[in-house]
Amino acid sequence: MRENNTTKEGLEEVKRLAKSYIKLIRVRGVKKTAEVSTRATYSLMTLLLIKMSLSFFGFALAIYLGSLLESYPLGFVIVAAIPLLFALFMQIFNKQTFRFLLDFFTRIMTKDQ
To answer: What is the mean pLDDT of residues 65-91?
Structure first.
């Protein structure tokens, strides 16, 4: 009879241990999800502020170039060509850009604390 109780106690201990591991995995998952969500939100807010700043800078530069060239439309065309060139370069180097972003987000997701 003694051996039977020991086996039951051992099985109960294994069940408790398994439940504890499941809870630990859940907690780690929630923590990682919260961390990624926070980083994404922070990055989006930063990106929004940078876009706003660059937008105002672009208007100022376009007006300045327009006054130098005595043609405001030409100033705006020159400034508008800059993001188009960046977009063109991103398309040319599509695989490298994609690989960089994939590696960056993979590092965030798999970073050990």
So the answer is: 92
pLDDT score of 94 = 83
Contact 29, 36 (CB under 8 A): no
Burial class (CB in 10 A: 0-12, 13-18, 19+), 35: middle
Q: Tell me the Cα Rg of the chain.
A: 28
0.70 exceeded by the pTM?
no
> What integer pLDDT is reported at residue 101 of this predicted model?
82
Q: How many CB atoms lie within 10 A of CB 41?
A: 10
What one-character-per-residue DSSP string does 4-56 give?
HHHHHHHHHHHHHHHHHHHHHHHHHHHHHHHHHHHHHHHHHHHHHHHHHHHHH
Q: What share of the chain is helix, strand, coil (3-state, %, to 5)?
A: 95, 0, 5
pLDDT of amino acid 113: 47
The count of other CB atoms within 10 Å of the CB of residue 104 is 10
